[in-house]
Write a structure and sequence with these properties.
Length: about 200
């Protein structure tokens, strides 16, 4: 699931600069990014990208709202470090691949001619880009990041798997809800905003 292609054709470059460039590109030019930046079997850069986003999300959350730091590991600094390490090593990779497995099953249902699992992993990873900013305790920002991420997932699935927007939406609604609604707390942010506006 983490195949590293030495010389990918059309895949992503490696290193911190490449991660930063990919983050900017997928946010600004998602259609072009998904059309040219996803290569079969080239999962490693996508996995690294998803880990970076998850660590950024958790790190900003811990920094701006210290009450969210787990206290099971001693002091706040040690607890934050261990928690971020756990996110990087276990939570992000496991969540990415489990969600990709679910997304693949749904694609089988909705899309007849589709790309492979590797491409699906990469689309999910890069669609999470906005959520690097979602750790801030600002409901408007968190909701916007979650909605933008869900939109990027639709764009990525439509482009990479060669399907229609309607089928892409149908295939991604459950994974998007899990990743962006629950994982990155988009649903909580939206509920907070609706309550603030007296809608619920």
């Amino acid at each position: 699931m983490t195949t590293w292609v030495d010389d990918p054709e059309g895949g992503r470059a490696r290193g911190p600069t490449a991660v930063a460039r990919a983050w900017g590109e997928v946010l600004v030019r998602p259609v072009r990014f998904f059309a040219s930046g996803i290569a079969p079997g080239d999962q490693a850069p996508g996995l690294v990208f998803a880990v970076c986003v998850a660590v950024a999300f958790a790190g900003v959350r811990f920094l701006l709202d210290p009450t969210t730091i787990p206290t099971a590991f001693g002091g706040a600094a040690v607890s934050a470090f261990v928690s971020l390490l756990f996110v990087a090593v276990f939570v992000a990779p496991a969540s990415l691949h489990l969600t990709a497995a679910l997304q693949t099953v749904l694609l089988i249902v909705f899309v007849r001619d589709r790309a492979g699992i590797s491409e699906t992993v990469q689309v999910l990873a890069y669609a999470s880009a906005p959520c690097a900013l979602a750790g801030a305790p600002i409901p408007e920002l968190r909701a916007a990041c979650a909605l933008y991420g869900a939109g990027l997932l639709v764009v990525g699935v439509r482009s990479v798997h060669g399907t229609t927007t309607g089928r892409a939406v149908a295939a991604t609604v459950v994974p998007a809800s899990l990743v962006f609604g629950y994982g990155f707390r988009g649903f909580d942010a939206i509920a907070t905003l609706l309550t603030r506006w007296y809608i619920i």
